[in-house]
Fold each of these.
Amino acid sequence: MKRWFLVLSSWIWFAGQPAGAQVPLPGGPASATVPMVAQITLEADEDTNCFVVVTGTASLSLGRFTGPTTNRVAQTEIARMELVGEAPDLGIVTVRAGSNLVGRATLGALSSTNRFFPARSTFDLFLTVGLPGGTNLVNLTPIRLTNSVTAWPPVGQAYVSTEPVILVLASATNIVMGSLEQLTLLPANRGNSRLQAVSASVTGSNSVRLTLPSSCLASTGTAVVAGQRQLFSGVWQSRLGCDESFRTNLQFTALWNTTQRPGDWRGFHTGRFVLFQLVGGRTNIVGFGTMDGSNGAGTRRAPLELDEEDCASCYRFEGRLRGRVIASGPLAGA
């Protein structure tokens, strides 16, 4: 088991309305590019389900509202969406949407019965799911996403698919490859204030997909090993007197690359991470972002007052997480 120490550095956005105040619909037209997170469950055959979390950005557009006060409606569109993630047993998965990327537009509507939020929002999503090896799957039947939203763009408000849809081979649409069982799409908050020094420990396992031995260019010719597309996952937890984790029952997963020297395995890493919770059989995304730092060299040691570790801890990771907290609560938008 391997223990890692994490530090989160990110941004917080505080915004609100007076209690009981009604929020009017935007004037439109308007457009925005926001961070996007999606949870997807794919079924390749009757016995195999593949769950993957993908992150990236999406461009959303809103048209002008028309109709009477009791039925104000505006057309919406996911003009462009590009997401990427990794399924543990499958590999890198990409998800794209938007007419310029997949050839079919993802259109929707935002409607209200009184010119104010909350408003009903829908999208008919057409996407391309890219699998390892160059296989691309598409849906010919739109994926209907629905939500009751309180703002536009609807950051922090999840859209959930209403029913499974068939996925076919993009190059031969008469060949059925499986189905998309469930899709949750979550536009994320942006922040503009900084939250620093949130520390936690993760005990988990690290799966190395590809290693590339080489040597440094220095005269010593020190050998190094580059580990690419490593998948690390474990439980995010606080240690008394050391960590200040901001939430309990969290799971941590990361896709990272490392460069380390054999023996003491000191080096550095870069990658992407996702924080999530398992609640009632569902996976709820808490935050995501990028990560970087050192490996195999702890800092909780003399001459610091907190002297509790070997300076050459082989499985030690320390560094920084940069990202966004998208779960509801006081840190939403961090």
Amino acid sequence: MKGFWICLLLIVLFLCCGAEVLGVHVHTDTAQSKMMNWSLVRPVPTSFSANVTFTAAGLTQVRPNQLGLLITAGERMPFENPMDFQAISSLIRGSGLDTALCKVWMRFSADSLTWSGWIPTGLAHDNPQAYRDTMLISQMHTIDVGHRYVSLMIRFEALTPGLAAPFVSAIRLDCFQPGHITEINLELLSQQGYPGTSHTCTCPMPVFANRTQWNCPDGANPSCTVPQYATPSHLIVHHASSPATSTNWTAVVLAIWNYHTVTNGWCDIGYNWLIDPNGVIYEGRGGGNNVTGAHFCGQNNQTAGICLLGNLDQNQPTAAALYSLQALLTWKACDSGLDPIATVKHTPSGLTIPVISGHQDGCSTSCPGQHLYARLGTIRQGVDSLLNLCQAALGLDDDLPWTLSMFPNPARREITLLQQAPFAPGTRVQLFSLTGQEVLRHQVQTPTTELTLVLPATLTPGMYRLQVGDGDHTRTQSLILQE
């Protein structure tokens, strides 16, 4: 896995010969060195404990009707020269792990003397309910590179008499550092193919960053050995939810891939698509169109998952992210023959839910965040309008004998047209509003296969119709203009 570092610290709490011990296993991979592994076993660095006891198998309360607490001393983070951010998540194993009864916090320090406040690790919103009694997976947190130490606090709540106390057999911290990752610029992305797309869909597929472009360790290849496929009946919207300190969203996508494959133990990133606040769309799970992901309450078949990066319980989605979300949903609804404003049965789960749903429509979670979920009704109507408009626009005079490509789409400032045969002198390029008003005209002067047009600054965001004609043939494409 070239170009980044992965570190996995496995903290196992148990009793050995009457002494509490901590087992640590570290695994790293860098561009400059091969994989290295080392382990350390020594007394538990406990700075405070109350009403907890270690048994031969793990940690629990002494008196279940009273609060139990354990705070570890600082563990040094494994990265000597981290870049941009560090990502950290935790996994707890045991029994009776009700999140109302057993909680874990983390805090961080640059020098092991002055500490941040305690941060609740939270529960991963895609952690299947079936596992929650024996395994709790936290959200992924991105933290500043200046933090060099981490400390844990494990808290057992006081129980009602008669209830069995939670039992913790192991706690694992997964640490990740992406290394130097160049952030992807939407304006520099170009149109590209996506395996398995429908040839009958007339709505444009938005430009996106493929897996190689965001430095997926497996490149363009699927990370899953045998990807599963199914045409989706539902498009599920998510938010990443994790607290973030980095705005290098390309590196954050890589960190989510690592979180899903290492902490969750999945074969690949769970989402089919991810969208950052700048409007950049990222290809998620490898395998091409209609590959089944891991994102919908353990009932993933016949769904496609789209995740907006950021915490949309705390923050509003950006206009750029919403434009890209609508464009992606419009293309996918067209590609799969879906009615974006319908409510239909999702057969694998047995639920009757909107075709465009939020994660919380399938199970108990706040995902995709209150600020995004409140917009889903408007998003459905917008997708329906775009779907109707682009299908109507692209049905006009489409008789060019060769392929015409346009990127980026959605666009902001300019577009580039590519054609297999050169644009002949005299070819006319026109852009129309959906009311039929011509808003841009350009006439080709010299033969070229690539034509870049600057869009008028006065244009308002929305759908436009591009028409290219050379006297003998014309072709139309729809263009989505972002703010």
